[in-house]
Amino acid sequence: MLYLTRRERFSAAHKLWREDWSEEKNFQTFGKCSNPNWHGHNYELFVTVKGNPDSETGFVTDLSAIGQIMKQEVIIHLDHKNLNLDTPFMKGKMTTTEVLVIEIWKALDNKIKSIGARLHCVKVQETENNAVEYYGN
Amino acid sequence: MLYLTRRERFSAAHKLWREDWSEEKNFQTFGKCSNPNWHGHNYELFVTVKGNPDSETGFVTDLSAIGQIMKQEVIIHLDHKNLNLDTPFMKGKMTTTEVLVIEIWKALDNKIKSIGARLHCVKVQETENNAVEYYGN
Amino acid sequence: MLYLTRRERFSAAHKLWREDWSEEKNFQTFGKCSNPNWHGHNYELFVTVKGNPDSETGFVTDLSAIGQIMKQEVIIHLDHKNLNLDTPFMKGKMTTTEVLVIEIWKALDNKIKSIGARLHCVKVQETENNAVEYYGN
Amino acid sequence: MLYLTRRERFSAAHKLWREDWSEEKNFQTFGKCSNPNWHGHNYELFVTVKGNPDSETGFVTDLSAIGQIMKQEVIIHLDHKNLNLDTPFMKGKMTTTEVLVIEIWKALDNKIKSIGARLHCVKVQETENNAVEYYGN
Amino acid sequence: MLYLTRRERFSAAHKLWREDWSEEKNFQTFGKCSNPNWHGHNYELFVTVKGNPDSETGFVTDLSAIGQIMKQEVIIHLDHKNLNLDTPFMKGKMTTTEVLVIEIWKALDNKIKSIGARLHCVKVQETENNAVEYYGN
Amino acid sequence: MLYLTRRERFSAAHKLWREDWSEEKNFQTFGKCSNPNWHGHNYELFVTVKGNPDSETGFVTDLSAIGQIMKQEVIIHLDHKNLNLDTPFMKGKMTTTEVLVIEIWKALDNKIKSIGARLHCVKVQETENNAVEYYGN
Cβ contact (<8 Å) for C101 and D2? Predict the structure, then answer.
């Protein structure tokens, strides 16, 4: 079993904010991430798939095909977007990195299967100090 | 003459947008950076000062003092903020990285002088592929 | 289950040295790391915790809370310190990166539990070429 | 159990190409990686070994010993070489990163055992966006 | 005056080799870079242009336009190519990084002028340890 | 004129400390860098030389020759050493990065001339946030 990791990047705005909470409670809970006027990040998305190499090509799967799926299924909805307002799969959800990796997993899982590999890990690096990983359960 | 560089970071939202232009013209000119709902970046700010080392301390100036000035004069107005809406020294200005480095220079110049050094360069790295530098004229 | 990783950094001096060995045996075993006058590193500490996201906040736990625990329990004893002489939890121990990750784990484990998460991995990157990870057993 | 990772680097040429296929089929399958005149990369090789720390030295094993084995068994055959033409353990094989990590594992496994550690993972980073990991089965 | 830097990447094969020299002399002069079967690198190309920001847009020039010129004029001839055999502007030349930055400058200079900016610096990073810069004279 | 930059690394201990000052005054001036028991860093040394490319070889000068000079003249005295106690060219001097770049310049200048290039810049990166450059006057 081999594990292939592909990185794609996106630059997005977001805020951590519950509409049903006061500004004070939002600030107490989410700190500077609750700025009502948004803030943003250069996110790095690492998708790891697993599989066995094909005896003819030596490929598990073409990593650029993984990149294409990442772009079509998630990056197009994330890059130069507002995660709270513009991203279909984040609508009505908290835009923490935790929720983001779970939703990205859901958006990619079947598409990865359709090219003969299996999704192993979705990792999002939000800043050089913070990252979250999800393995599907 | 020695050149000291200090890095600080900020995560901010912005958009490239002229209110006196139509959405179409904004999009034609600024592309995906004109998303009305904002996007954002992890910016890296590199400030370079120059001076001669003190014979007693071996310091041109304490680099952590430079860091303090950067935080008090600019980072506090940039980090987890919206550059178009929240940053006093960007009000009414285009929030391109070009304009940003000039305004950061203006915000820092006198303060750097006041601790006995001279501002040499303000550099902002917007993404791993794009950066802008300004040397004061 | 989600895995959150927080990075903090510390700059420290140390040497690999057994007092009950001769200088020759120390040098034979530990090479240049046995320099009696010490050497040092910019260490990077990556702490990974695991847990489930809270349905209200979307947080497993606030990553900046993890950062605070890291600073209070370990970084304060490591940064700009001598690992052999100044660090309480390394007293009388070899200051290899192997021993360091185990002792950092012990210093963090209960505190991480107390904020509702579980410690998953302690990783220390000593140089760009060398790193050690510990998963608690 | 502790996990130690050592990085070494190599710069090599290769192409993805089957002699028993036409140039067209090679290009269809491998894209720009099938350029008949070769292309190349700065590869990063990360080898992770596992073991328990020695009570006297605090070492699982000397990481520079791992580095030596990596150099003698694999880097010498990879650095400034053509993976298709010059590397004994890649002869007659596809030079995908997938096949490469498996062959590097085979070349290292016994040597790592001989210094009292166990091979845990071989990872090759081909570009800043693409990496492959192998855990031995 | 502002300085904008855009990074693009290319993966290429090359060798340092003079046909009018013996293999011995090539090896004596160029060391492992003279491997007859080629080797390769992940090169990073940094192009810096200078100019004044437009008062309406806040742009010196659109950095993605710089990226487009870099791709059309040079990257297309360098990426997944053999610098000695495939790159028109390197034909018959030594493929040292020194010669490469000069030829990239020549290939870009007029195109950069045509979008209203001036070329300031071409930098190529060959490995994490080696880089060459050229300022046009 | 071309500019070639070579990076080498060293891991060293040091402290900022004047023997003719009290511990209090040392701490007031140098903060945590004055820890009597030392601290340390992974320093990165970037040496830039300038010259014209040779018409036969395409080299300004062999970058590995620059690396050799760096190793023999400075790295050997810095790596796994104590800058205050072990480094001949730092004896009796403050071990700030400012003083270090000047002394490294003096140690390299003539040797670089002897291989037909000219020293342009010595840069030392002390941490990911702090760096100092010196251009010889």
Answer: yes
B49-59 pLDDT, tens digit per residue, is 999 999 999 99
Q: How far apart are CA C84 and CA F35, in angstroms?
A: 13
State the Cα angle at D10 between D5 and D14, rounded to 5°: 125
Task: Work out the end-to-end distance of chain C between its first and last CA atoms, rounded to an integer number of angstroms.
Answer: 20
The domain spanning residue A46 has which CATH number? 3.30.479.10
d(CA A115, CA D98): 17
pLDDT range class, residue C70, cuts 50, 70, 90: very high
Read off the pLDDT of residues A2-37 as tens digits, 9 standing for 90 and up.
999 999 999 999 999 999 999 999 999 999 999 999
Residues C11-16, mean pLDDT to the nearest whole number: 98
Q: Which two tokens stand for residue E135?
A: 């300022």
Percent of chain E at pLDDT > 70 equals 100
Cα four-point dihedral sign E54, E58, E59, E60? positive
- Nearest residue in chain B measured CA to CA from F32: B64
Residues of chain F with pLDDT under 70: none
From E16, E98, E128, residue closest to F7, measured CB to CB: E128
| Residue pLDDT, tens place only, C25-56 | 999 999 999 999 999 999 999 999 999 999 99
Residue pair C112/C119 in contact by the 8 Å Cβ criterion: yes
How far apart CA D15 and CA D40 sit, in angstroms, is 8
Q: Give the pLDDT band (50/70/90) at residue E32.
A: very high
- Residue C5 near residue A131, CB atoms below 8 Å: yes
- CA distance linking residue D27 with residue D16, whole number of Å: 9
Contact between chains at A57 and D96 (C-beta distance less than 8 A): yes
Test the A interface: residue of B38, B43, B126, B129 with most A CBs within 10 Å? B38
Chains that touch E (3 or more CB pairs under 8 A): B, D, F
The single-letter code of the amino acid at E110 is N
Name the residue range of residue C91's domain.
Answer: 2-134
User: How far does D94 lie from chain C, in Å, by closest CA?
Assistant: 28
Query: Rounded to the nearest 10 degrees, what angle do helices A63-70 and A97-114 cross at?
Result: 130
- Chain D hits for E127, CB-CB cut-off 8 Å, are 9, 11, 42
| Cα(E10)–Cα(E45) distance, integer angstroms | 8
Q: Tell me the pairing of strands C39-51 and B81-82.
A: unpaired
D40–E40 C-beta distance less than 8 A: yes
The DSSP 8-state label assigned to residue D73 in this structure reads: I
CA F49/CA F63 separation, integer angstroms? 9
Give me the residues paired with residue F14 across strands.
Answer: F39
The verdict on E85 touching D (C-beta cutoff 8 Å) is yes
Number of domains in chain C: 1
Among B37, B85, B91, which would you mutate to test the A interface (most chain A Cβ atoms within 10 Å of its Cβ)?
B37
Distance of alpha carbon A99 from the chain centroid: 9
CA A114/CA A96 separation, integer angstroms = 28
Q: Is C106 an interface residue toward D (CB < 8 Å)?
A: no
pLDDT digits (tens, 9 = 90+) for F72-93: 999 999 999 999 999 999 999 9
Q: Could you tell me if C117 and C66 are in contact, meaning their C-beta atoms sit under 8 angstroms apart?
A: yes
Cα separation, E123 vs E127, in Å, equals 12
Burial of D55: CB neighbours in 10 Å, binned 0-12, 13-18, 19+: exposed
**Rounded average pLDDT over D82-95:** 98
Question: Would the CB atoms of A58 and D96 count as touching at under 8 Å?
Answer: yes
| pLDDT tens digits along B27-38 | 999 999 999 999
In order of E90, E103, E124, the CA distances from E38 in angstroms are 16, 21, 19
Please tell me the predicted confidence (pLDDT) of residue A79: 98
Nearest 5°: CA angle at D87, between D82 and D91?
A: 105
Chain F: residue whose CA lies nearest to E130 = F6
E56 contacts in B (CB within 8 Å)?
18
Told to judge if B126 belongs to the known catalytic residues of this protein, a careful annotator would answer yes
